[in-house]
Every structure is written in structure tokens, then in C-alpha cells.
Specification:
Elements (H helix, E strand, L loop, with lengths): L2 H23 L5 H14 L4 H18 L1 H7 L11 H9 L3 H37 L3 H6 L2 H13 L5 H19 L4 H4 L7 H7 L5 H9 L1 H9 L3 H7 L21 H16 L5 H12 L6 H31 L5 H4 L3 H5 L5 E2 L2 E2 L3 H37 L2 H40 L4 H21 L1
Antiparallel strand pairs: 1-2
Length: about 475
């Protein structure tokens, strides 16, 4: 590996970190929705795959750290993963400890990254040891049952939300719907005359990959909200005639290193979150963060612990999900790998082709290390020193609508490129269904796990026909 290639990795990682420091602060952005398009742009530039992986790792680490900045300073989350921070940031703001809490969020992210790296490579070592001692190919064995793993994950995630029954009942219908729309040829096995209809002819041409479905689900609540504005009564309640006023809090309290409890809880929950890599990062973050403070009675202490734990879990769950999928299984088995990381597993010119790694583990470690170090070091440093100023700049000069229009345009472009106008219609429909379910209490975790388990539902249905 020559110096020029390493230099390209560093430059791309720096560029992606800078871009996502800004994107992450903008309210309404989501990891999958904004990471996939930028990764596709890097692919379109025909960069070396190792350069792309460096930029990708720098991107999602920066994104997870940056979207907590507006949540801490303004109580408006940058993305879905930071939503759980809002009530705790309000407590810290009331106590005049916004910057102090932000420091613990950044420190929590660092603990989460370290914990996930340790756990991921421990899992890798254990799997290699078991395979060497038993001669079993655990990868092939587990790959046969991924559908059941995702189904179990969907059921488990449904019990972590408030609307347990609704979430549980939505798993099979939503998973089956998305599977049918991704595999339209299967409709001919259900009804051989379906292609004779106009609807069937239109649907059969829509050969969509998984990526547009990820994006439609992540933007589903926003899409549903936009379509709801077509209802006059809803439009009147949502109409705004004045500019939004956002208060930026600040304080100068120094970070204390005596809070061993916060460090301990953040490390333990991050390690547990890394072991639960096959579950939705959003669901795992909410579940474990709430569990970690169940014994806290002091409002301020609870807010500080939760702030560090949530940021630690957000970073750990994403990083471990992709690392374990990449090194241990050589196929995407986690929501992080199936969502934001799907592109690097799908493209035949990157890392996985016919279930074989195109690069050695040592080669992959170089760009991953560069991306993780640059993404974490730069975003945490900037967050601690310039977080307030950056948040003020973004809220004042960068329109949220501009970013959202860009995201919708990318989704429409990808869908149209794959399946024409019918692909766009399908993705809009899935987004509206997803947004409706989200409003009824079916969270992202259940929806994504149902999406992954969809092929299992479809195969069972076809076997019964």
C-alpha cells in the first residue's frame, strides 16, 4: 500500500468529516438517508475501494457525533439517533449546564467507539477460534437463518416500544409488502395472470434494490407529514407565519474526571449495545439508555448519565454492526450494515463478492483506522470547541428545506434509475405507509427489522401457494 493511496484516504476522510459535521447539525437529517447518497457519489467517482471505506467510516462516525450538537444546545435533534437526548438536554439547559453536558456527550461517543472496537474484534477472534476448533463454517450456517434472526429482532424491538400490540401486528404485513414490491416476479407464482393487468405490467418492471426502501422508511414520517398538509385542517395547524426562535445556551463549567459512574455505565452499555449488533441501533440506544438510569433519582445526575450513555450507544451500535458484518460474517447481518453500509456490501467492485473478501483483513484495517481516527478526533474536537458557533451558523444560514429537497431528489433519482416512474411510485407508497406506522407507534427499529425479515415471509407465503 503506497503513500499516495494512504494520502487519498486521509484527504477523503477529512473531506467527509467536514461535510458531515455540517449535515449532522441540520435538524431532520437521518443516518441512512444522508450517508447512502454521499457513498454513492464516491462510488460514481471511481475512487479506490479502500479510499471509499475510509471516507465512509469517517462519515457515519462524524454523523452520529454531530447530530447530538443541536440536541444539546437547542434541544432540537439533528437526527433520529439524537432524539432520545432532547429531554435530558432540557434538564441540563434548565440547570445552566449545557456545555458541561455536551462535553459528556462527546466523551461518551469516544467511550462508545473504543468499546465497540474491542467487542467487535473479540467476537471476530471467538468466531475464528470456534471455526478452527470445530471445522464448521459458521458464516454459512448463520446466513441460512438470518431471516429468523431478523424476525426475532423485530418481535423483540416491538416489545421495547409504547405501542407493543400495534408494532407486533405490523411486522408480517409490512415485511411482506416490502418483499413483494422488491420481488415483483414472485407475484406470478401467486397469480400467473397478474401480468396481464395494467397494474401487474407496471409493477413487474420495478426491479428495485434494497437501498431505496431504506431511504423511503427513514424519510417516511417526513413524507407522511408533507402529504398530510394536503388536508386543510392539518395545514392550518401546521402553518407558520413567523421565523422560529432558537435559544442557544452556554456555560463554562469544566469537565470533571471524577464521575466514574458515568464512565462505567457508558462503557458497559456500549459493550452490550455492540453485542446486540443485529438489532436496530435506534431501538437498542433507547432501550439500554433507559435501563442504565433506572436507579437514578437525581434529575441532574440522570441527565448527565443518559447524555453520555446515549451518545456512546449511538456510536458503538453503528460501528460494531458494520465491523462485525465485514470481518466476522463477510455479509451484512446488522441494520447498520444493511442500511447506511449496504452500498459497500452490494457493489461488486468493493469488498464482498460471491461471499469472498476481495481484500485481506490487514488491508481493510488501514482505511477503517484512518476513517475512525479522523472522524472521531476532528468531530469531537470541533464539537467541544466550536459546537455552539457551528450550531448558530447552521440554524441561521443553512435552510433545512434545502437539505430535505436534496434528500428527496436523491431518493427519486435512485428509484427512477432502477425502475423508472413505477419505482418512484412504489417508494413514495412505502414511505407513506412507513410514516403512518411511525405515527401509530411503530418505530424505525421494528420497521427495519421487518424489512430485513421480508424475504422469509415471502418464501413462506410462496411455499403455501
Amino acid at each position: 500500500m503506497d503513500f499516495s493511496l494512504i494520502l487519498q484516504m486521509i484527504l477523503v476522510a477529512l473531506l467527509m468529516t467536514t461535510i458531515y459535521l455540517v449535515i449532522g447539525i441540520i435538524p431532520g437529517t437521518d443516518e441512512t438517508a444522508v450517508l447512502v447518497p454521499m457513498t454513492l457519489i464516491l462510488l460514481a467517482l471511481n475512487l479506490n475501494p479502500l479510499v471509499i471505506i475510509a471516507g465512509f467510516f469517517a462519515s457515519f462516525i462524524t454523523m452520529n457525533i454531530a447530530d447530538s450538537l443541536p440536541a444539546a444546545i437547542t434541544s432540537i435533534p439533528g437526527g433520529v439517533m439524537a432524539t432520545a437526548l432532547v429531554p435530558h438536554s432540557q434538564v441540563l439547559k434548565k440547570k445552566g449546564l449545557t456545555t458541561y453536558g455536551l462535553r459528556w456527550m462527546m466523551f461518551g461517543s469516544l467511550i462508545g467507539l473504543i468499546s465497540s472496537i474491542v467487542v467487535s474484534f473479540a467476537v471476530w477472534g471467538i468466531f475464528r477460534f470456534i471455526s478452527a476448533q470445530t471445522g464448521l463454517n459458521l458464516n454459512n450456517f448463520i446466513q441460512q437463518y438470518t431471516g429468523y434472526i431478523f424476525l426475532a429482532g423485530a418481535i423483540f424491538m416491538s416489545f421495547t416500544g409504547k405501542k407493543k400490540v400495534v408494532a407486533l401486528l405490523s411486522i408480517i404485513p409490512f415485511g411482506l409488502l416490502t418483499a413483494l414490491l422488491r420481488n415483483p416476479a414472485s407475484l406470478t407464482q401467486i397469480n400467473p395472470h397478474v401480468l396481464n393487468s395494467l397494474f401487474g405490467e407496471l409493477l413487474f418492471r420495478s426491479q428495485l434494490s434494497m437501498t431505496p426502501f431504506f431511504l423511503s422508511i427513514t424519510t417516511g414520517p417526513l413524507l407522511f407529514g408533507l402529504f398530510s398538509l394536503l388536508v386543510p385542517s392539518v395545514f392550518k395547524t401546521q402553518k407558520v407565519d413567523e421565523k422560529m426562535t432558537v435559544l442557544l445556551s452556554n456555560d463554562n463549567r469544566k469537565l470533571e474526571h471524577s464521575h466514574k459512574k458515568i464512565v462505567r455505565k457508558t462503557a458497559i452499555t456500549s459493550a452490550l449495545g455492540s453485542l446486540l449488533f443485529f438489532l436496530s441501533p435506534v431501538g437498542v440506544t433507547v432501550m439500554l439508555s433507559e435501563f442504565s438510569v433506572r436507579d437514578e433519582t437525581d434529575e441532574l445526575e440522570k441527565a448527565l448519565v443518559s447524555s453520555a450513555v446515549i451518545d456512546g450507544l449511538a456510536s458503538a451500535s453503528y460501528l460494531s454492526g458494520i465491523l462485525i458484518s465485514l470481518f466476522v460474517f463477510a455479509f451484512p447481518i446488522s441494520p447498520a450494515a444493511l442500511g447506511p453500509g449496504k452500498v459497500i456490501f452490494d457493489d461488486p467492485g468493493l469488498f464482498i463478492k460471491d461471499a469472498n473478501l476481495l481484500f485481506s483483513s490487514g488491508q481493510l484495517l488501514v482505511p477503517i483506522t484512518i476513517g475512525v481516527i479522523i472522524g472521531a478526533a476532528l468531530s469531537i474536537t470541533v464539537g467541544l470547541t466550536l459546537g455552539r458557533k457551528m450550531t448558530k451558523f447552521v440554524f441561521k444560514y443553512i435552510s433545512q428545506e434545502t437539505v430535505l429537497i436534496f434528500l428527496f431528489s436523491v431518493i427519486a433519482m435512485l428509484s427512477f434509475a432502477e425502475a423508472g416512474f413505477s419505482g418512484v411510485l412504489i417508494i413514495v407508497a412505502v414511505g407513506l405507509v412507513s410514516g403512518f406506522l411511525n405515527k401509530k407507534g411503530v418505530g424505525y427499529g421494528v420497521q427495519f427489522m421487518s424489512l430485513y425479515a421480508g424475504n422469509l415471509f415471502l418464501s413462506v407465503l410462496l411455499s403455501l401457494m
